[in-house]
From TrEMBL:
Gene Ontology MF annotations: metal ion binding
Cytochrome b561 domain mapped to chain residues: 164-358
Protein name according to UniProt: Cytochrome b561 and DOMON domain-containing protein
PROSITE patterns cross-referenced by the UniProt entry: CYTOCHROME_B561, DOMON
Pfam families noted in UniProt: Cytochrom_B561
Segments passing through the bilayer: 203-224, 230-257, 269-287, 307-325, 337-357
Domain DOMON: 48-161
C-alpha cells in the first residue's frame, strides 16, 4: 500500500512539475535586448518546448517571438496557406559557427534542399526588425511581419534541424509539426486533410470545366458547323455542363478562401473575371437574335470575342492556380499535355478550315 501511494505521489509530482515548466516557459522574462520591441505579447505554449509570443496591431503588423530549447542547428516557423509545407514561407533563425545570429526568410517550394530558397517568400517584413538571441540554453527568434488583413486562423508549421546552415542552405529538419493557430483566441488546432481535399477539388473542377470542356465546346462551334444541327446542340450542352462544373469549382474556391484566407489577389481576380465572361456566354444563348436580324453581327462579335477572352484568361488562371497552390508535377504535366493537345488540334483544324474556305467562296454560316 505504501509503495502504491509513493508511486502515485511520484506521478502527481511529475505532472505538477511538467505543468509548472509549461507555465514558466511563458512566465520567464524575455532577454533584455528584446524587451524594447517585443514586450506586452500574448504567450502560448504550442508544441513540445516551443513557446509562441505574438501581437498584431491595428496596422496588421504581427510581432512574433518563437522560443525553444537550443544547443545548435536552426529553428523555423512557417506560414502556410493550406497547412502544407510546399508553397509556404518560413522565418528561420540560427547562431552561426562564428557566434553570429542569422534570421532569413525561406520560400519552401519543394521537399528537397534545392527548392528551399533563401530571401524569397510571400511574407512582408523589415529585415531590421529581426533578431535571434540565445540565453540560458533557449533560442528566441524575433521578427515582425506585415499582413494585408488581420490574422485569425492561420496554418503554422514549426520545425528544427540539428545542423548549422552553411551558405544559407537548410539541412533536413529533425522534427516538425503543423497546426492551425487562432491569433484572436490563442488556441491551436490540429490540421486535418480538409484544406488539401478542398484545394484539390477546386483545382480539378476548374481545370476540367475551363481547361477541357469549354475549349472542346468552342472547337465544335468553329470547326464542325457542317454537322448541322448536331454541332449546335453539342456546343450548347457541353458549354452548359462546363459552366455548372466550373461554378462548383468556384464554390469550392470560396470555401477554401474562407478557411485559409489566402492572399492571392491575382488568381482570385482572374477567377472572378473568367466567371463574369462565362455568365456573359450563358446569357448569349438566351439573347441570340435570328440569323436575319440586323443585330446578329453584333451578337456574333460579342459572343465570339468574349468566348476567346474567356478561354485565354481561363488558361492563364489555371497555370497561376497550379503555381500558387503548390501543385506537384502531375498537375503541371497533366494540364500542359491537355493544353498542348488542344492547341495542336486548333492549329490543325484551323488550317483545314482555311483550306476549305480558299476552295469555297461561299460565306461561312452564322449561328
Amino acid at each position: 500500500m505504501a509503495r502504491a501511494a509513493a508511486a502515485v505521489a511520484v506521478v502527481v509530482m511529475a505532472l505538477a512539475a511538467a505543468a509548472t515548466a509549461q507555465m514558466e516557459s511563458c512566465n520567464t522574462e524575455l532577454p533584455a535586448v528584446l524587451v524594447g520591441n517585443y514586450s506586452g505579447l500574448a504567450c502560448q505554449p504550442v508544441w513540445n518546448n516551443f513557446v509562441l509570443r505574438y501581437h498584431q496591431d491595428k496596422n496588421n503588423v504581427l510581432r512574433v517571438v518563437l522560443s525553444t530549447m537550443y544547443s545548435t542547428g536552426w529553428v523555423g516557423i512557417g506560414f502556410s496557406r493550406d497547412g502544407l509545407m510546399v508553397g509556404s514561407s518560413a522565418m528561420v533563425g540560427w547562431i552561426g559557427r562564428k557566434g553570429l545570429p542569422h534570421v532569413k526568410q525561406f520560400s519552401l517550394r519543394g521537399k528537397t534542399s534545392g527548392k528551399v530558397v533563401v530571401n524569397r517568400g510571400f511574407l512582408v517584413s523589415n529585415d531590421h526588425d529581426h533578431t535571434v538571441v540565445v540565453q540560458q540554453a533557449r533560442i528566441h527568434l524575433a521578427f515582425q511581419l506585415r499582413f494585408s488583413y488581420k490574422l485569425s486562423h492561420q496554418h503554422i508549421i514549426l520545425a528544427f534541424g540539428s545542423s548549422i546552415p552553411v551558405n544559407n542552405k537548410l539541412t533536413k529538419h529533425q522534427d516538425k509539426t503543423s497546426f492551425t493557430f487562432d491569433f484572436t483566441t490563442g488556441k491551436a488546432f490540429a490540421d486535418g486533410s480538409f484544406p488539401y481535399k478542398l484545394r484539390r477539388a477546386h483545382g480539378a473542377l476548374n481545370v476540367f470545366a475551363w481547361g477541357v470542356l469549354l475549349p472542346i465546346g468552342a472547337i465544335l462551334a468553329r470547326y464542325f458547323r457542317r454537322m448541322d444541327p448536331l454541332w449546335f446542340y453539342l456546343h450548347v450542352g457541353i458549354q452548359f455542363v462546363g459552366f455548372i462544373i466550373g461554378l462548383a469549382g468556384v464554390v469550392a474556391g470560396v470555401a477554401l478562401y474562407s478557411k485559409i484566407q489566402a492572399d492571392i489577389p491575382a488568381h482570385r481576380g482572374l477567377g472572378i473575371f473568367v466567371l463574369f465572361l462565362t455568365i456573359l456566354q450563358i446569357l448569349a444563348f438566351f439573347l441570340r437574335p435570328n440569323t436575319d436580324s440586323k443585330y446578329r453581327k453584333y451578337w456574333n462579335w460579342y459572343h465570339h470575342w468574349s468566348g476567346r477572352l474567356l478561354l485565354f484568361f481561363a488558361a492563364v488562371n489555371i497555370v497561376l492556380g497550379i503555381h500558387v497552390g503548390g501543385g506537384d508535377n502531375s498537375w503541371k504535366i497533366g494540364y500542359g499535355f491537355n493544353l498542348a493537345i488542344i492547341l495542336l488540334a486548333v492549329v490543325g483544324l484551323e488550317f483545314m478550315l482555311w483550306t476549305r474556305w480558299s476552295k469555297d467562296s461561299a460565306p461561312t454560316p452564322t449561328y
